Amino acid sequence: xxxxxxxxxxxxxxxxxxxxxxxxxxxxxxxxxxxxxxxxxxxxxxxxxxxxxxxxxxxxxxxxxxxxxxxxxxxxxxxxxxxxxxxxxxxxxxxxxxxxxxxxxxxxxxxxxxxxxxxxxxxxxxxxxxxxxxxxxxxxxxxxxxxxxxxxxxxxxxxxxxxxxxxxxxxxxxxxxxxxxxxxxxxxxxxxxxxxxxxxxxxxxxxxxxxxxxxxxxxxxxxxxxxxxxxxxxxxxxxxxxxxxxxx
Length: 248
Ligand code: NAD
Ligand code: ZN
Fold this sequence. Notes:
A six-stranded parallel sheet has the order 3-2-1-7-8-9, with helices on both faces. Strands 5-4-6 form a three-stranded antiparallel sheet, covered by helices on one side. It has helices at 2-14, 47-50, 53-58, 60-77, 82-92, 107-111, 168-180, 199-205, 233-247; strands at residues 18-22, 96-101, 116-118, 121-128, 134-136, 155-159, 183-187, 209-213, 227-229. Helix content is 37%, strand content 17%. Helix 6 (107-111) links the parallel strand 2 (96-101) and strand 3. It starts with a helix and ends with a helix.
């Protein structure tokens, strides 16, 4: 483990353009549970089912009650953790250019990263399904479910449900930064949700080194990633940054 931490610090030290790809695991230490794996808030439900656009269109009250209300509660209170802070420091050092995130919690921006591609949109805003008016999630009154816009339309998260298209701009830019980077940090993603999981493949094909940070191995491990540093994202980032400081 110590060797891998040193390797990562050396790879980052020598890198000119670093891209990070983050998944739900990067926000776990901020108290936001992942969909899959142990401890998920939604262990009782299949997120693929509850967070599918067809479920929402069929029964918005059910999806608001089972999923969105809880997410609002958790995300409204969440603060960036050491993983987010480490990525900000890496940007300040002139190494990290862009964070591609699958997360919708806005914590990378709250921490201070300036170029964040939100692959799955954002939970910070809700939008009216009738007139497309956007309302800040923390201002949405959830005393009646589903919450509605002034026009009477139902509000939905400005995020991508399963079964919906990735915003084209996010996809296009992600491919570009994946192609251009010389190191990609892949943090806390199980790499099963496509097309986000394709970005490390694009980076690898363009010659980048792929470093994974995750307590578990993933579909990328041993195949696409050059090495996996096993551990929680905040702790691993702290150790990498301490080693990097000593090298700079
Ligand atoms: P996932 O839930 O499929 O996988 C989470 C990954 O995090 C796993 O590989 C797990 O081993 C790893 N992990 C667990 N603890 C960790 C830690 N302390 N540090 C680092 N990694 C840790 O997540 P996913 O691949 O991102 O896919 C689920 C989709 O659901 C995402 O695309 C996202 O849009 C959405 N989602 C978002 C949030 C959020 O915004 N915070 C939360 C849950 C789900
Ligand atoms: Zn409206």
